[in-house]
Amino acid sequence: MAGELDGRRVAILAAVRFVRDFVLSGKPVASICHGPWNVVEADVARGRRLTSWPSIRTDLRNAGAEVVDEEVVTDGTITTSRSPDDLPAFCERIVRSSHGPRSPPARLAGRDRRTASASAGPGRVR
Questions:
Q1: Are residues 37 and 15 in contact, defined by beta-carbon separation less than 8 angstroms?
Q2: Active site residue 91
Q3: Which CATH number does 2-101 carry?
Q4: What is the pTM of this model?
């Protein structure tokens, strides 16, 4: 049992280091439910606007975060969400921040964009 607990501790410390390194290097971090605890443990919550599962919001406040009760919150490169119920909005935010807004459908005005581009010929734009 002690080994298992020690192994968990190492995994937790690795996750905290991962979050801290990502935040400090400007890379995106997305965390849902109890996940924002890693933001607290990584000491990168202070001054940030975050959300989480209700039972850990006091910990976020104590770490200096502004805590809000919203589906999804993005502050800089950190995106947080409250619960699995908010997963659709959370995923949408991550996709948008990674790839921009959704691209238009492949079919426009009854024509396939790929076919329209190919039929224009090399070097010609339609």
A1: no
A2: no
A3: 3.40.50.880
A4: 0.73
Is residue 18 pLDDT above 90, yes or no? yes
Name the token pair of 30: 């997305």
Predicted confidence (pLDDT) at residue 120 exceeds the cutoff of 70: no
Secondary structure (DSSP) of 62-107: HTTPEE---SEEEETTEEEES-GGGHHHHHHHHHHHHH-SPPPPSE
Structural domain boundaries in the chain: 2-101
Residue 55, SS3 per DSSP: helix
| β-bridge partners, 80 | 31, 73
pLDDT in tens, 70-112: 999 999 999 999 999 999 999 999 999 887 555 544 444 444 4
Residue tagged active-site, from 16, 19, 29, 33: 33
Query: What is the C-alpha separation between 23 and 74, in angstroms, rounded?
Result: 13
Q: Which residues contact 29 (CB under 8 A, 6 or more apart)?
A: 19, 22, 23, 39, 77, 78, 79
